[in-house]
Amino acid sequence: MRLHWTATLSLILVASPALVAQQTTLNVIRHDQQLQQYRQMIDRGIEYLRLRGQAADGSFSGKSGIGPTALVVSALLQVGQAPGDPMVQQGLKFLKAQVQADGGIYSKESLHRSYETCIAVVAFHLANQDGQYDQIVAQAEKYIRGIQWDESEGVERTDMAYGGAGYGSQSRPDLSNTSFLIDTLRSLGNGPDDEAIQKALIFVSRCQNLETPYNDSKHAAAVDDGGFYYTVAAGGESKAEPLPGGGLRSYGSMSYAGLKSMIYAGVNKDDVRVRAVLDFLRKNYDVQSNPGMGQQGLFYYYHTLAKALDAAEIEVFDDASGKSHDWKQQLRDRLAHLQQEDGSWVNPTTRWMEGDPNLVSAYVLLALANCKP
């Protein structure tokens, strides 16, 4: 028996270099296949937007405001399209025509001025070459800082609206728009110590179902699951179904938005807020649906999931049962499955404009920008 074991061990040791080489080859093949799948998805999505998505004036779904156009242009630039690409240039030309005297970038009749400016300025920043958009970017940044809910609006820190951003200067703040504000300021090169980002963090922390020194909301301890909901302002609201016992239900897209916002604001991974939301997300890990919302807001959810886990530098996500997930590959596989024959993506559950293939395709490209093989 000992001789047999020794002989077997010798064979394994002799064969090991070959086995290692074989495994290396398999890994290279697998990576090439993943990269091919990734690139094909992006190329088909871009082709759809080029051939079917863009109107003659350069807009994408222009009847819905400038938001879809700004998201599409930003997404195209983030997945590698050159600023000089004709589709990108036409989109930027349309957006440039919406630059207002106050520095904001929005259509004059818009009720979503803060939101539209935030995403449009990112597009100009990404496309900025030789300083051609410096003035637009600087004025737009000043504009979005100016309408954040803070002392300049007569709002004190004790107010639950403090630090947040809404769709416009008069609309109540919410976590979605506040996360776009933080994203935008960070994209423009502002660090965690930026005053506006730190003010926004106060609002973000209050939107978490977690009782901490950072959360003095009346809702803090009602659910206490570590997840996030839509807004703590104006009495509080979750877009998910009400909980039988009261409180505001946490859900997936806002919880990833909360995680991402805290990371961008410099909150340490060992902070109780980050640990709590990661625990919530581990218990609710899902690439089939938006936890707490089902298919509603599914593609918005995908793009926040990808940005948040990438920002958290998580390559393998362990769920609450201990199962490990290669979330990037799982998300890519899911998005490949959902891609339409014409190259677009669309949600049959149309809440929040997700019946619009231009908007949804932009969300997918933004997600893919953060989960490259």
Give a short summary of the structure.
With 373 residues, the protein is mainly α. Helices cover 51% and strands 1% of the residues.
Fold and architecture overview:
By secondary structure, the chain is an all-alpha fold. It has a domain at 20-53 and 303-373. The protein contains 12 helices and 2 strands. Helix 2 (67-78) runs parallel beside helix 4 (113-127), helix 6 runs parallel beside helix 8 and helix 8 (252-264) runs antiparallel to helix 9. The protein is globular.
Number of helices: 12
Please provide the ordered H/E string of secondary-structure elements. Answer: HHHHHHHHHHEEHH
Give the helix/strand class.
Answer: mainly alpha
Tertiary shape: globular
**Sheet with the most strands?**
2 strands, antiparallel
In the predicted model, the low-confidence regions spanning at least 5 consecutive residues are: 1-6
Work out the number of β strands.
2
Give the spatial strand order of the biggest sheet. Answer: 1-2
Task: Write the topology of this structure.
Elements: H1 2-53, H2 67-78, H3 86-96, H4 113-127, H5 134-146, H6 175-187, H7 195-206, H8 252-264, H9 272-283, H10 298-311, E1 317-318, E2 324-325, H11 327-338, H12 357-368
Antiparallel strand pairs: 1-2
Helix pairs in contact: 1-11, 1-12, 2-3, 2-4, 2-12, 4-5, 4-6, 6-7, 6-8, 7-8, 8-9, 8-10, 10-12
